[in-house]
């Protein structure tokens, strides 16, 4: 699963090993989410405006942290 949230703090730390990636609306290279994602080798994009409004639970997400892009993948069911 990919976590899409406003921001992360230490309370999210137990969930990071369960995640495939992280997207936050707030943060920078030294934000909690970005630092912990690097420690776990997770793709992470921070500073995505309105991410929690754009994406909904159950969306199939394509997260490319190398390019800094995140989007919804269209499926036959959608």
Automatic annotation (TrEMBL):
InterPro entries: PEP-util_enz_mobile_dom (IPR008279), PEP_Utilizing_Enz (IPR051549), Phosphohistidine_dom_sf (IPR036637). One of its GO terms (molecular function) is transferase activity, transferring phosphorus-containing groups. This is PEP-utilising enzyme mobile domain-containing protein. It comes from Ixodes scapularis. Residues 1-68 form the PEP-utilising enzyme mobile domain.
């Amino acid at each position: 699963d990919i976590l899409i949230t406003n921001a992360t703090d230490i309370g999210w730390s137990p969930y990071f090993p369960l995640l495939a990636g992280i997207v936050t609306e707030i943060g920078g290279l030294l934000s909690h989410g970005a630092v912990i994602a690097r420690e776990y080798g997770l793709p992470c994009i921070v500073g995505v405006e309105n991410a929690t409004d754009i994406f909904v639970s159950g969306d199939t997400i394509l997260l490319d942290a190398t390019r800094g892009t995140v989007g919804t993948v269209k499926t036959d069911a959608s």
